Amino acid sequence: MLREHPALDDCVLLASETFTNAVLHGGGDKVEVSVDVQERSVVVAVTDGGSGMLPHVVDEPCALGGRGLFIVQALAREWGFDVLDGGGVRVWFSR
């Protein structure tokens, strides 16, 4: 059951970060989230319309914003992004 999955809290935080990035920085008016729950892992993908700017990690400790992917990088087992046909971007992570 998902409520008992050991990665739940981290996945909620990371999904929030990637969704917020998609809303703030992704192009278009549609954001999609998919979640694949396995016994030992969870994979979350957030897709937006793309804005022409690729996702990147801001590792500036004193930055006032832009640290969402830094958090994803720190907590996810692995993460990445795909540029889709039509210019959309899918950011995904596993935990």
What report would you give on this structure?
It is a single chain. This protein has 95 residues and is of the alpha+beta class. 27% of the residues lie in helices and 26% in strands. The protein is globular and about 35 Å long. A hairpin with a 5-residue loop joins strand 3 (78-83) and strand 4. The protein has two helices and four strands. Helix 1 (8-25) runs antiparallel to helix 2. It starts with 7 loop residues before the first helix and ends with a strand. It has a four-stranded antiparallel β-sheet with strand order 1-2-4-3, with helices on one face. The chain has a single domain, classed as Histidine kinase-like ATPase, C-terminal domain (Heat Shock Protein 90, 2-Layer Sandwich). The chain has helices at residues 8-25, 68-75, and strands at residues 32-37, 42-48, 78-83, 89-94.
Q: How would you summarize what this structure contains?
A:
With about 100 residues, the chain is α+β, with helices and mostly antiparallel strands.
